[in-house]
Amino acid sequence: MKKLEVFDPAMCCSTGVCGVDVDPVLAQFAADLQWVEAHGIAVERHNLGQAPQAFAANPAVLKEMEAGMDRLPILVVDGHIVATGMYPSRVQLAQKLGIALTTADKPHIKPGGCGCKPGSC
């Protein structure tokens, strides 16, 4: 079984999806991780503020962090770093994990669907 580890920056809770001002990227990523788990991938998420020992135990993650805290989040698949500094989309996660996307799995984004006024995003 493949294993995906996510090394998050320090956040208020384990997923960052808490409080009154939730980042929509974090909310989507949390949903995408559930989708990944549903496809048989083991997922572990480590928050720097709550589980620093997980960071200390991974030399490759420590080395990335030496280059700067902007390297977080760091995604590791089966011991190999596959992404740094951003939360990948579901499509990117599928590519990195070898999950075939069905039509139902692909994002359904409508033009102007962010809820913003045109030109304000």
Descriptive report:
By secondary structure, this protein is of the alpha+beta class. The chain is 30% helix and 17% strand. The chain is built from 4 helices and 4 strands, in the order βαβααββα. It has helices at 24-38, 52-56, 59-66, 90-97, and strands at 3-8, 42-47, 74-77, 80-84. Strands 2-1-3-4 form a 4-stranded mixed β-sheet, with helices on both faces. Strand 1, helix 1 and strand 2 (42-47) form a beta-alpha-beta unit. The protein is globular.
What's the short story on this structure?
The chain has 121 residues and is an alpha+beta fold. The chain is 30% helix and 17% strand.
What general outline do the C-alpha atoms trace?
A: globular
Structural class call reads alpha+beta
Query: If you average the pLDDT, what whole number results?
Result: 84
Strand share of the residues?
15-25%
Give the low-confidence spans.
Answer: 108-121
Describe the largest sheet. 4 strands, mixed
Q: Give the helix proportion (percent range).
A: 25-40%
- List the total number of helices: 4
Terminus-to-terminus distance: 39 Å
**Strand/helix succession:** EHEHHEEH
